[in-house]
Amino acid sequence: MLRLCILLFKRETRLLFRRPMELANPLVFFALVISLFPLAIGPESRLLATIAPGVVWVAALLAVLLSLDGLFRSDYEDGSLEQWVLAPQPLSLLVLIKVLAHWLCSGLALVLLSPLLGLMLGLPERTLGVLLLSLLLGTPVLSLLGAVGAALTVGLKRGGLLLALLILPLYIPVLILGSGALQASLQGLPTAGYLWWLASLMVLAVSLAPLAIAAGLKISVAE
Amino acid sequence: MNWTWFHKWGSPKWFYEMSGAWLRALAWAAAVLLLLGTVWGLAIAPQDYQQGNSFRIIYIHVPAAFLAQSCYLMLAVAGVIGLVWKMKLADVALQCAAPIGASMTFIALLTGAVWGKPTWGTWWVWDARLTSMLILLFLYFGVIALSQAISNRDSAAKACAVLSIVGVINLPIIKYSVEWWNTLHQPATFKITEKPAMPMEMWLPLLVMVLGFYCFFAAVLLMRMRLEVLKRESRTRWVRAEVEGRA
Amino acid sequence: MGELSKLARYRVTETLLEARDLACERDLRLLFAQLNFAVQPGELLQVLGPNGSGKTSLLRILAGLMPAAGGQVLLNGRAIETQRSELARQLLWLGHAPGIKGLLSAEENLGWLTALHEGASREQIWQALAAVGLRGFEDVPCHTLSAGQQRRVGLARLHLPGPKLWILDEPFTALDVQAVAALEQHLQQHCAHGGAVILTTHHPLALPADSYRRLDLTQGAAC
After folding, report:
1. Total number of domains in chain C
2. What is the pLDDT of residues B151-195, one digit of tens each?
3. Residue C27 distance to chain B (closest CA, Å)
């Protein structure tokens, strides 16, 4: 079973890296959305620093969501999903590994890019650690929850907007905790509480979301 | 344990025959309770010493908010029954209840905003309860949009079931995080949550209204479900007999 | 044990897959109802019927990808819903889209698909690819292959160790005359070794009429 998991992980990362542009698109989107805010609000750095926690997190939310739209689409179209559903191995384990591979290739890059964009928004250096850590804990939750929506909408012709409609309300706790942590750090307040909450949300998502993703995929394949 | 009652619920024909009588009873109960509660609440109950007459909107706001939340819980329960025991009637209930729940949420939001004007001086305040309600409305929209988007009836019901179960697991997390967010950002405003204890004369009509709203909800839900069952079973003999008998 | 006595032994064992009172409904239209048939090890069953008669739906129901509107599918005498993992171990499913990734090479694709079941060595995969006439195309990305060649990559799974019950949806699509003949031969051989095949095709099989059975969905009975 472990061997199979490693094989699947290799296969998924290989597939992702053979389309490098598709990995880069969410990152460019992330950077682009963040640079829209100074243009819309004005270049004053104090104002930007106060809204930066919210801006970074909203942009991260949207970028992750955008990258997930096609998560299962090609698998659905080329019949891979049928093979997965009919495989003797538990589907929830297979999708967990797939989402993990996807997060490592796209979500992690987004996390690593965020300090740079944080600095551009005028966040002080001392907050960057919290920014990194909160995104590191939060984005896997975003990926897993988004994958539930992607699994439910994979059979639909125009699933993208619907996916956002289904999933964005579920992202709210992560948004509140993530940007809250950053705001607290900006004001010099302790942030450990937020980060622990984010970590427990991640544990919850890792343990429950794969079941929902598997159920969603089975429903979409049955159609 | 005797499971016959459970299997009976799996039969659309049995449901249709029985629900007619329930529908009448519920509709009457809803009408009487709502009328009683409205007159009692708007005319007889005393004024609030702080808010004057404007508090009377709680007789609509609170029952609608109650119902909005319990309806979402009902969606998830119906979803579990539909997914685990493959009961078609649970699918019907889920898809019929979602729009009613959404409209109740909308009523709760609207009355909350109207109430906000005399209380806070503005139509909208990012109060924790109102914000949670708004998110709940979005969750309802998600379920409705998904059920409309999937053309296959059974797949749509199952997909909505999964979505509402995920939503119900998230709902307490959303509620707590929103409350937390609210205490962080808005320390000193008048909160609906921290009203002084309500005297009995105000409280009793509210109870009547809540019961009336639940009966109304159940009646509307049954009506919608009966129609949907007729549509789904339109090929069967009993539905043809039923429809021709009426015509 | 000789080939013949082996065959005889398979004949007397209980049925492999059985459909009881199966019904299928698509968009409020009844495609078939009260469908009864059984498949024994060593049998080849061809499902016939005009477009839209529910051939693919029947195969999907048999494979457990889609719920039936009524009736049951039994595997070794037990309903498939109660033994999904057992069905998954015994079944090889090739749908309209065979689950081949365009970005991966033929070898990578087959390596993953066989890993879901018993797994296969590199040599076995190369041999299987040679058997379907793809020698020299082992490490070319599949999207550069022609439609017929891609189809053959999927069919190469039939030459690798794996489950005994094959359900194939239109396996002859896009194949040339030689490949069709070779596949027919291979299917017959599989049945002679105790395997079972259920397939749909518009193409009349060039096998002796008594070596396989036909199920006509317009008549609703196996003959």
Report:
1. 1
2. 888 889 999 999 999 999 999 999 888 888 887 765 444 444 445
3. 7
